[in-house]
Amino acid sequence: MEKHRVAIIGGSFGGLTVAHTLRRLLPRAQQEITLISREDKFVFIPSLPWVAMGEKSLAQISIPIRQSLESRGVRYLQGTVEHIDLASQRLHTGDGECEYDFLVIATGHRSANEAVSGLGPFDGPGHSLMSADEAQEAADAWQAFLSDPGPMVIGCAPGASCIGPAYEFAFEVDHALRRRKLRHKVPIQFVTPEPFLGHFGVGGVDRARRFFEDELDRREIGYHTSVAVSKISTDSVQLAGGEEFESRYSLVLPPLAGVGVVQDTEGLTNPKGFIPTDASFRHPDFKNVYAAGVAVALPPIGDSAVPVNFPKTGQMTVQMARAVAHNIAADIKGGSRREKPLSVQCILDLGDRAAKLLADPVRPPRNRTKVSIGKRWLWAKQAYEPWFLLRTRLGRPPGPW
Questions:
Q1: Closest CA to 197 of 216, 176, 173, 181
Q2: How confident is the model over 182-218, as pLDDT tens digits?
Q3: Which of 39, 87, 158, 214 has its CA 20 to 30 A from that of 245?
Q4: CA distance 135 to 147
Q5: How many Cα neighbours within 13 Å face the side chain of 2?
Q6: Rounded CA separation 48/204 (Å)
Q7: Phi, psi of 346 (to 5 degrees)
Q8: Same fold flag, 4-110+257-341 and 116-254
Q9: Which residues partner with 277 through β-bridges?
Q10: Which class for 367: exposed (0-12), middle (13-18), buried (19 or more C-beta within 10 A)?
Q11: What CATH architecture applies to the domain 4-110+257-341?
């Protein structure tokens, strides 16, 4: 029996889900799976706002991935892919080469901090939540801020696609400051490229717009839509229109771009470094190359005065990854392919409760949309993370939540 070699680049939601799902779908005699990841840990990215607030440590939201993979018969290589040779079907790493018959790219993103002067955190005074290191830096700065509070600006840069964590951080900050009796010392401004609150890059969901407008008003958080952050300094945030807000703590989420090795591979990506795919998440020109997660090029929904890009959540990544695994299995043994449109459901922490948002499919017209608010959703969000980590540690990551 011929053994097919599957190489996966990336060890987060997409890569791990593809590896473990493929292992269940096909016998080991038919496939040899290799996963290459720069990091040796899986980090539950949706919990990074809690890390930034000091409510969770990185250790609490992370698990090692080597044992999880190798116990299931998946070869694990920790390292960086330096070159992708599509013609010879080889990956070049610092430790050698890896040949493949099928390639899955689940590399995530690069924060395009160059889009805004001072965006930071490591090349400017702004703070971010797009990686574990950035969340830890934001947490350290937050603790220092509490000893000498002042004005804050929270939001997203033009072209951002990961909008939800900015809302979460604003609500969590408001809640934390009220508990500490410090809210009166901290004017908060929320800035977003969205044409209206709750747009999220998907054109809005159900009554989300009215809810977020009411919620920010109730909390006395000023909000500004269709704005482009142009510069972040140590004491202010400037907008492209000339408006400027005083700020001692500025958390602004960046636009995203493809990682270097993917973007540098000729013919693989669009100009922003994301991978075009068909409905089965297969590259249109390279039929043995698939992609899942943030690496996938997904066009925005409609035009807006300030660019807002299509979101790619962890839950959506798991959907893509499961479809990729199913379709590679179909390539190997035959059978139908999976091309179901993506849906999205997420839970946003509001500090004292949470909001669940659902859009199915994510692109209009939709069959279902819903916004539900309550304490139960906060409990669900708090419970889901350790359950997901346990399942992933055991090599059985759950399906889309």
A1: 216
A2: 999 999 999 999 999 999 999 999 999 999 999 999 9
A3: 214
A4: 19
A5: 6
A6: 24
A7: -145, 160
A8: yes
A9: none
A10: exposed
A11: 3-Layer(bba) Sandwich (3.50)
DSSP result, 279-316: TTSB-SS-TTEEE-GGGB----SS--SS--PPP--HHH
Q: Exposure of 52 by Cβ count < 10 A (0-12 exposed, 13-18 middle, 19+ buried)?
A: buried
Q: Enter the DSSP assignment of 355.
A: E
Q: Which of 9, 51, 162, 357 is catalytic?
A: 162
30-51 pLDDT, tens per residue? 999 999 999 999 999 999 999 9
CA-based nearest residue to 159, from 215, 130, 218, 116:
116
Considering the candidates 346, 350, 362, 378, report the single residue annotated as catalytic: 346
Report the DSSP beta bridge partners of residue 231: 117, 238
pLDDT of residue 40: 95
> For the structural domain made of 116-254, what CATH number should be given?
3.50.50.60
Residue spans of beta strands (DSSP E) within 194-282: 222-224, 229-232, 236-239, 244-246, 249-253, 256-257
Q: Are 94 and 1 in contact (CB under 8 A)?
A: no
To the question of pTM greater than 0.90 for the whole model, the response is yes
Cβ count near 190 (within 10 Å) = 23
State both tokens at 108: 């995530």
Q: Would you state the pLDDT for residue 95?
A: 86
Look at residue 56 and tell me whether its pLDDT is greater than 60: yes
Question: Of 64, 86, 87, 88, nearest to 76 (Cα)?
Answer: 64
d(CA 178, CA 171): 11
Q: Helices 314-333 and 13-25: crossing angle, nearest 10°?
A: 30
- Catalytic residue list contains 98: no
Q: Where are the domains of the chain?
A: 4-110+257-341, 116-254
Q: Which 8-state DSSP code applies to residue 337?
A: P
- Give the whole-number percent of the chain exceeding pLDDT 70: 99
CB atoms inside a 10 Å sphere around CB 384: 16
Going by C-alpha positions, the residue among 213, 193, 196 that lies closest to residue 204 is 196
N- to C-terminal Cα distance for the chain?
A: 36
Q: What share of the chain is helix, strand, coil (3-state, %, to 5)?
A: 30, 25, 45
Residue 48 tokens read as: 């990074």
**Torsion angle in degrees (nearest 10) through CA of 382, 388, 390, 392:** -160
